[in-house]
Specification:
The protein has helices spanning 49-52, 87-103, 111-124, 131-144, 188-195, 199-205, 210-228, 234-244, and strands spanning 5-19, 23-30, 34-40, 60-65, 71-77, 165-169, 172-176, 185-187. It is of the alpha+beta class.
Length: 248
């Protein structure tokens, strides 16, 4: 069978690592081919501009050959400059990269999620408050991989009520009859907010409700942790070290 040859595919590098003595393996996220691995032959010793462009957060047009397994990069062009991500925004972007790397199926075309990824990186380079940006992307990712629970209907098939309390029990939320307000409970109004696309209003107005932000983060973190199934996120550790002023 003749090897496939893909030309000028919009893409971003999620992660890169050395391969043998002179090459590099790139984990990339592409518009029409999803996430896949490419080998850049001789990239560790090459001095070409194309190789210098193979960095995270750099918009790229990639070409490669090979239909199965590890494909071979044949060309790389940068249509625009890399995004400028400073301090906490950079760590947030690494977190987004790691989510895509660990939670999306390999070679599964997801143009909608790719667009959300591009929008997220751009927003992180512009906004002062990254939390709504991250929540919006987490929701998009969970929806894309089919792991978003119903935020409007509880497990008993009743509409979620704004003043009632709920507890997550996969695959959804159950209404509870107590008001102990333990840390695993969430009020229905916060679930309704997630159903409406939690971050939309916050990103438009720049006003973030602290309690709503806290609840959205807690709920989505629980869902993402379930999806990770015990795997750890290095980006979380990196951000914790950054927040404490420690070196990674």
């Amino acid at each position: 069978m003749k090897a496939a040859h893909v030309i000028n595919q919009p893409a971003y590098v999620l992660h890169r690592r050395p391969y043998r003595e002179t090459s590099i393996i790139l984990d990339v996220f592409t518009l029409y081919h999803g996430r896949l691995a490419l080998m850049a032959r001789g990239a560790q010793t090459s001095k070409t501009i194309a190789v210098a462009n193979l960095q995270v957060f750099q918009p790229l047009m990639l070409s490669w050959t090979g239909g199965y397994g590890l494909r071979t990069l044949t060309a790389a062009e940068a249509p625009s400059s890399a995004l400028r991500l400073q301090s906490s925004a950079m760590y947030c972007a690494y977190y987004v990269n790691e989510l895509v790397l660990k939670l999306t199926p390999e070679q599964d075309a997801t143009p909608g999620l790719f667009a959300a990824y591009v929008d997220t990186l751009q927003a992180l380079s512009e906004v002062d408050q990254p939390e709504p940006v991250l929540r919006r992307f987490e929701l998009a990712l969970l929806q894309d991989i089919g792991l978003t629970p119903d935020f409007e209907i509880d497990l008993a098939s009743h509409p979620v009520q704004p003043n009632d309390w709920y507890r997550y029990r996969a695959p959804g939320f159950e209404r509870v009859n107590d008001d102990s307000h333990t840390t695993d409970l969430v009020q229905g109004r916060h679930l309704q907010k997630l159903a409406q696309g939690w971050a939309d209003e916050e990103l438009e107005t720049g006003v973030v409700n602290a309690e709503a932000a806290k609840q959205a983060k807690r709920i989505l973190r629980q869902l993402i942790n379930n999806a990770l199934n015990g795997r750890q996120l290095n980006s979380r550790k990196m951000f914790q070290q950054f927040s404490k002023g420690e070196k990674p």
